[in-house]
Amino acid sequence: MTTIDIDTEKGNFRYDTDYAYDAGVGLGPRTIEYITQAKGEDAWIAAFRQKGLELFLQKPLPTHWASEDLKNIDFNVIRYYLSQGQRPSRNWEDVPEKVKETFERLGIPQQERAFLAGVEAQFDSEAAYSRIKDDLQKQGVIFMGSTEGLMEHPELFKKYFGKVIPSGDNKFSALNSACFSGGSFIYVPPGVKVKQPLQAYFRINAENFGQFERTLIIADEGSEVTYMEGCTAPKFETTTLHSAVVELVALKGAKIQYITVQNWSNNVFNLVTKRAMAYEEAEVRWIDCNIGSRLTMKYPGVLLKGRKARGEVLSIALAGQGQHQDTGAKMIHLADETTSNIISKSISMLDGRATYRGRVSIPSHLKHCKNNTQCDALLINTNSRTDTYPAITVRGNQNCVQHEASVSKVSAEQIFYMRQRGLSEAEATSLSVNGFINDLTRAFPMEYSVELKRLIELELQGSVG
């Protein structure tokens, strides 16, 4: 058996950094004013932020989901904005030294050269590096940080900003609306097909920090784009908060594929709102892998607004010691002949808990809509736990829905068979788990598929044997 060399501490490092802008700890009107002034924003953005703050303070913490875990977040000790004051560089050599060392250690420049059409690297609150290939820029493709998108393309940005996910959608979308900074802005013109992926990498370096990136992707009629994001943070003893908002707009006949592989440290509360709007014959595909964090609450959704629109969520969640992966999907059918597909796989080990929480809605006036939902869970240890809460509402008699769920344990017979052929128990378990998710990992680009399998093997170390 070939041994995979895994760097078990790849993301667990940090550099002491001097910040030009620091909003301090705690959240209030003065914090929002500080962020607005530091970023030099227009009055309408300042009003948008203040409204987000009002909604955040009004809304209670969720009483369902993982409410007990959420009570451990002390919003008064979080730092909501940290920046070195730099504008994102187009030249890697111009990136601040400590930031450059961070991303070089994570392998970002090598990935850009190897297989990416463009890359953006965010360090705490702001992007430090952003670049797109010249041929795509000539075709009119826009790929930059959200801060730059607001400044350089205000009319296009404002047209869709906050339209898919309103500030009052939930408590954490309101928090993001108040404090958002960084994230990606992408626009693909009609008919342009971006053949190589665009990637963003989000890095938290500071302790007691909250990262609130805001991503907006617009694929115009007949265009295609794949976007990938990766996330890491050092291991701190104190709470780190990540609360992003992602809005996707796929216009007529457009295709968007959004791929996430997160590997947060286990002190991170990852509370994210992701949603897409798919118009006539458009297609949106979320591919989501959740590893690490103390608590993840993430339910990518698609509003199937146009006839023959298609939405798909393929997700993998791995819950380890002291972790809760509360993930799922939402498919809201709003037009005839729309199709949605949800495939969710979770793995729970030690005392980890994985929860699938989904929503599918097809109202009575629609015709010829289809949904498939499949939830499979794998338990590694006797103390691990899995829960499934599918909410499927289908009305009318001209629509088709199917739901399938399974819960299984790692097969003792299979482990015994592999151990008889020279594998250790940990190696056999890892092989079994990778077989469980193999059909989904094929949907990932090769580079991410290999990394995903390495991360899973790493997480399994120490959980068996």
Task: Give structural notes.
- With 465 residues, the chain is of the alpha/beta class.
- Among the domains are: 21-298, no CATH class; 419-465, no CATH class.
- Helix content is 25%, strand content 36%.
- The chain is built from 13 helices and 24 strands.
- The strands form three sheets. Strands 5, 6, 8, 9, 11, 12, 14, 16, 17, 19, 21 and 23 form a twelve-stranded mixed sheet that branches. Strands 4-3-7-10-13-15-18-20-22-24 form a ten-stranded mixed sheet.
- β3 (118-123) and β4 (126-132) form a beta hairpin.
- α7 (146-152) packs across α8 (154-160).
The structural class is alpha/beta
Number of helices: 13
**Through-space gap between termini:** 18 Å
Portion in helices: 10-25%
Estimate what percentage of residues fall within beta strands: 35-45%
Low-confidence stretches: 1-16, 112-116
Report the average pLDDT across residues: 83
Q: What oligomerization state is this entry in?
A: single chain
Q: What's the total number of strands?
A: 24
- Sheet of most strands: 12 strands, mixed
The geometry reads as globular
Q: Nearest-angstrom radius of gyration? A: 22 Å
